[in-house]
Design a protein that fits this description.
Layout (H helix, E strand, L loop, with lengths): L12 E6 L5 H10 L5 E4 L3 E6 L2 H13 L7
Antiparallel strand pairs: 1-3, 2-3
Length: 73
Amino acid sequence: MDILKRTDPRGYYVVLLSKTKSQEKSIDVILEAHKDEVIVEDLGDIIAVRTRSRRVARKIASFALKWGLLETG
């Protein structure tokens, strides 16, 4: 996944998720599973998930891609 090639200036991998009412529970489930490993920022219609772990970022991005939640733009 191209989104995991580089980190932000602070060294975090950032995964952007589209926040929709119908998928809110799905997002909560995956974030709850990694609550100690991620920083979650609510940006309105988008949720920014930051983590230092590439493995965790890949898991979250794969889940989001599968469920159509990955924000690409």
